[in-house]
Structure formats: C-alpha cells, structure tokens
Amino acid sequence: MASTTNSQMxxxxxxxxxxxRQRVMGAFFLLLALSIWFFFARSVDxxxxxxxxxxxxxxxxxxxxxxxxxxxxxxxxxIVCAILGGIQLSRGFKxxxxxxxxxxxxxFVFGFLVWATAGKSLNLxxxxxxxxxxxxxxxxxxxxxxxxxxxxxxxxxxxGMMLSGAMVxxxxxSLTQSAWLGLFAAVxxxxxxxxxxxxxxxxxxxxxxxxxxxxxxxxxxLTSYISAKFMQVYPALNNPPTxxxxxxxxxxxxxxxxxxxxVNNLFVFAMFIFIIILQIALFQTRWGLRVRAVGEHPxxxxxxxxxxFKTRYTSVILGGMMAGFAGAYFTLGSAGRFDEVMTxxxxxxxxxxxxxxxxxxxxxxxxxxLFGFADGLASRMAILGIAIPSQFLLMLPxxxxxxxxxxxxxxxxxxxxxxxxxxxx
Amino acid sequence: MTTNSEQPKKxxxxxxxxxxxxxxxxxxxxxxxxGRVxxxxxxxxxxxxxxxxxxxxxxxxxxxxxxxxFGQSFGAGLAAAWEAVSxxxxxxxxxxxxxxxxxxAALQSGDELQIRRAFNPILESLxxxxxxxxxxxxxxLGFRAGVFNIGAEGQIFIGALTATFVGYSITGxxxxxxxxxxxxxxxxxxxxxxxIPGWLKAKTGGHEVINTIMMNYIAFRLSDFLLxxxxxxxxxxxxxxxxxxxxAWLPRFFPDPIRFHLGFFIALGIAYLVYWYLFKTTxxxxxxxxxxxxNAAKYAGMNVTRNIVLxxxxxxxxxxxxxxxxxxxxxxxxxxxxxxGYGFDSIALALLGNNHPLGVVLASxxxxxxxxxxxxxxxxxxxxxxxxxxLQAVILAFIAAPAIIRTIYRLRxxxxxxxxxxxxxxxx
Lengths: 425, 428
Known about the structure:
The complex is a heterodimer. By secondary structure, chain A is mainly alpha-helical. Chain A has 16 helices and 5 strands. Chain A has 2 domains: 2-119, no CATH class; 124-405, ABC transporter involved in vitamin B12 uptake, BtuC (Orthogonal Bundle). The two termini of chain A are 18 Å apart. Helix content of chain B is 73%, strand content 0%. Classes of the chains: A mainly alpha, B mainly alpha. At the A-B interface, helix 8, helix 14 and helix 16 of A face helix 8, helix 9, helix 14 and helix 16 of B.
C-alpha cells in the first residue's frame, strides 16, 4: 500500500514538471483559441451585438443590458487564449497550469455564449440562477460521496438514496402538509438506506459496488411501486408544499450578485452552508482527521485507537442524510410532486462531480456548478436557436469526468483505502 | 494419525511418512465437495425463496384491504392477507406459464388461435428471458476477468442503435445475410462501447465502474440525439427509428400473437460459446487468471492489459447483442424506452448464476419469467410490476452477502474459501 502511495506522489510531482504535459496543454490552449476563431468568429455577422441581460423583471433596480459587439469580442477572446497558449508553450505556467486551464476554458465558454447570443439577447442572471438550482442536487450528491469515500466506503447508491428521499419527502410532505417534516423524512430515509449500505459493506464486507447496486435497484423498484400503487391513484398523496424563494434582506438588493446569490430557495443556501461546514469539518477538525485517516490507512488509525467501524458508519450515514436532503430538493424545492425515476441520474453526476472535484468539498462545488451550468445552458439552447443539439452539451460533464479520471489534468487523490473493507485482526 | 492407546506398538517412521503423503495428496473427501457444491446451489435457491417471502410480506403491507380486514377481526385480517398474496402470486404464475385450465380447454376446442393464446404466456417468458441471457453473460464474463461492467445498459443502447441502423438502412439483402449482419453490427457497437472503458482502465487506471457509468449516460444522450434527429422516423412526432426491414427480422416460429423468435436459441448457443471460451480454451484460462489474481497472471507471462481490454470488449459485444436481439426480434424499431433496465438487472443475474454461463441462463429464465408474469399480475391483482425490482434487489443482497442467508437457515460456513467477486473500489 505504501509503495503505491509513494509512486502516486512521485507521479504527481513528475506530471507537474513534465515538458510533454506543458506542450500538450499549450497546444490545447492554442486549439481553443483557434476554435473560437474558426467555429465562432467566422460565422458571426460583423455588426451583430450580443446583448446580455443583467437583471430579471423582478429586480428593484433595473440595469441596462450589457451589449457587446460580438465579432470584436470574439477576436479579443481568441487573442487572449492564443497569448496564454504561447506562454504555456514557451515558458509554461508551472504550478499555475491548472488555474490557467480553468481561465482558458472559461474564456472559451464565454466565447460560446457571445457567439450564441450574437444578434439576440440572453439573460445572464436567469442563466446563473438556473445554474445554481441545477447544481444543488449535483453538488449535494458530490458532498455525500465525499463523506462516504473519505472514510473508505465507495458509495454508488447516491442515486438510489436521492430517489428514495424524493419519494418519501413528497409522501410525508403531502400527508402532513408540512415541507419541513417532508424534508426531515427524506433525510431520515437517506440515513436508513446508508445504514443498510453500511451493514453490507462494513459488517458483512460485501463488495461495496454490488451493495450500492442493490440499493439502487431496490430504491428504483420501491419508489416506482409506491408511486404506481398509491401516489398516482390518490393525487392528494402527491401534493407536497414546497419551499419558496427567500430573499435575504439588504444583500438581495445588490445588483446582479444579489439576484443571483441572495434570492434563492432553502436548498441553494443550504448547499453553500454544507460546503463550508464540510470543508472545515474535514480539514480543520479532529473528527475530519479521523475520517481521513480511516479512509487512507485504517490499520494505522485502528492502532492509534480510532474505532474504524464506528467512524465509517458515521460517515456513511451522514453521507446518506446528505443524499436524502438532495432528494428532497427534487420534490420540495423544485417540482412540487414526485414522478417515477425523477432524479434521472443526478446522483451519478454527483459521483462524477466528486471525482472532478478531487474528493474535496470546494472542488465538488466547482464541479457541481460547472455541470449545473451545462445543464442550465442546455435548456436555453433551444430558445436561442443554436444549431448544436443540446444532447451534446449534456454529454460534456460525463466526457469531462472520464478525461479527468484518465489523469490528463493530473492524477487526483483517491483515498487510499477507498472500497476496501476493513478486516480487524 | 490414528495412534490408539490400546495399540502399544508405535508406528514406524516409514509408515508415518506414507500416512503423511496420503493425507497431503489425498483427493478431497467426497462429502466436503458435496457440501460446497450443495451450498453453491442452496444459497441462490434460498435467496430466491426468501426474496419471494419478503415480496409477499411487502404485498400484504401495501394492500389497503388487509388493514381494513384487520380492523374487523384478526382472522379476517389473516384471510385478507392470504388472499392478497395468493392472488398476486397466482397472477404471477399464470402470467408467466399460462393458465392450465385454459390450455386444456383450448386444446379440446382445437381452435388454433385459442391454442396459441393459451400457450403464449410461457413462450413470452422465454422472449423476455432472451435479452437477460445476453446481458447476464456480458456481466458474468466481465466478473470472470475481474472487471465490473456496470455499463451494460449503455452498451445495450449502442448495440440496438447500430443493429437498427443496419436493419433499416441497407436494402435489398436476403435475410440469410441481413440478419447476421445486423446482429454483428449490434455486437460491434456494444464492443466499441465496452472497449473504451476497458482501454482506459488498462492504460490509465481509470476505474471501469465510473467510466462505464459515464458511458451509459453518454449512450443515452447519443440515442436521444439520434432518435430525435438523424435516425428519426420521417413524419413521426415521437422519437422512434424507422421500421426495421423484414429481411433483418429475427424469424418468429409461430404466427401472432406469439413473439417467440430465433434469438432465444442464439442466446443459448452464445451461452455455450462463452462456457467453452472461458473453461475450455487457453484464452479463457488467461482471462480467468487475470480476474482472480492479476499479479500471478503477470508473473506467469500473461498480458494483463490485453486481457482486460479484451474482456471489456467481449462483455460489451454480448450486451450489444442483447440490444440487437430486442430490436430485431421483438420491437422491430428503436424507441428511447426500449430497455427496461436490462443492464442493471444483469448484474443481479450474473451474481445469482455464480458467473457461470449455465447459472446465468437459469437465472435469466427465472427473472424473465418473473418479469413476464408481473405484467399479468399488474392487471389481475393490481400489484405494480415494480415489485420485481424489489424482489431482485433483495435476492441480489442475499447473494452478495451469503452470511445473511446462512444465519437465517443455519447453514454451516463452507470449509473452502468462496470464489467471491474480486472487484475493488477505486482506492485499491
């Protein structure tokens, strides 16, 4: 085990300084610069204006839209990309390469938006609002995965836990006519399923991927069964109250930022709070150190007197609660009703966001927002009348995850004991 | 060593040596072996049995009439509970195998349509089982090579896409060429979808579970795009492909409404091929060695990388055949909703069948029968057919953690180490 960790660390430093990687990255930046010119700039009318709306009609202070001459903007963006690519090729950004990569990709995405909006208008505030709400289940799913996997338990059942949370919250919410009770029940359901996952993978040492598959199949079956047998027959059982948007006083009145960040429903705020809490808890507290120790080297942790089993159970159950909470978003925070398999793979994208974010909460947030942005943009493509089918945009998160997993961006740090049941001697 | 106190004479050194030799190289006792084989069969059977019982309890708990009857009296409650379960399971049985009384009546009447209708359920169960056999074999083959192909669902979609495309776009071929061509196209499509994660695992170490899950969603989006765009049936409002040409149809053996087609026998043939490949060829031996102990395989000079890529590709090809079989044999076109989760169910099938082709075929027949019967149960007893997914999950749970079944039925732990699944999480 120690040797693999060492070789990984060696690999990591090696990759950073690698001249091959430096050149590949430089070429990639140049390629993006070229694409901005080739695909976007060439097909834009010289006089077209891209108009980005900066406030929705609900805002107190209406801002004028941000008008950009599309063609010139695209040229500037392409040149900036090209210059960055040139520097990368000749000198290299060394340890800032990944940060520059993020900037270049950001420029490319902005170029895409300018191209798509040329001659039309797009409301940026609306787009970012959609991004935030679409990012909620993905980010919370990532947090759920981080909690489990940092302690060394692979959890591919996030999807199933979310789905069950969604169904139970709709059912309980409708029965009690209380969104809070529905939310509570969803969290409890997630915890219960996670406990089952814990029993299988920690106590019985079952293969954790199979255990996750069991829960996913079970959750799909159970929720569809209850839905078909009761919720579709008695509509009153599928009519939960929802959490509306809350505007935070004062902060909500800040132009643009206020509308994007401070007028949202409970789930968006909770997402940000959970990220901060988890980030601090994992990396600044004794509890977090223990969880990570158990996930990296359970035997060493055990020798030091940490109860490996208890720590893993706690983490897995907390992860399940997070997934259940994310499930409630679908019914109580968004649709206001439960539909069969309504999570539609968000749990799995959450898993992808966890990997993309390198098993770090803030990284998971970044990935969640990125994937949410793809999701939000896809729903607007049709309105903008873009020729690219939205399905390809929706594929991007998955493809990006595979690229990250392949180690092109640099090897991620997987908890060393992830997925290996602990055998106490 | 049998040194008795009543035998004062000590055995000589030579005798001890011979006895030791005997003990060491003695073939395993027959009893022990039987015990192990017995458990390999007993645990799946008990798992299915327990699953059905839990399903029954679940049906009772979700039937409103039972609660009402328990409100009247305890006896009435029990009767209502019994009625609910027996109604559901008899619906399941007649849905899966047909109604014996109706069969006899049909045979007596001699009306051909009546006979066909009466015997349709059992043949329909075989039709439902067919894609399960292919997909179960796909996952089992992967498990044997130590890779977890959780992406059978995506491979099924791609296989169906390619088979459908060949099925409707190439015209003027005789069936004898068109059918194999379409099947091959399906296998090739699935193989390609399995090759990518296999190659990524072998070359970069990216875990195949994550990659195949990602490939699943890429496949769904791709199908969605193709069926709403380039492959959409002209003039149709729904995302559905054009009708596959009759020359590419898998031949059916009986007139309507019986859909029983050649695919079932192809599936059995492929199952035998997989068995032969895994257990009778050097390649199969290499594949299994890589699966059980990659390090040993490496030191024995086997090419681990190549075997992993090969296993994922073959696994994908089998899953692709499942998709091709469905579109060419049953649906004769491709719509987004054509797969009812065969890919995920197949994981349960492979494990229930102990990753052995024969076991997979038997497990597929069981699940195919259950699925097919559940459709009728939904009609007669009002039990949603999603109950089968619940059953499946429960059965899979028991198979994956045999300790639970052993505790319930007080079975002894086998002396021989169980051949578990050797898949690790992404940390190992």
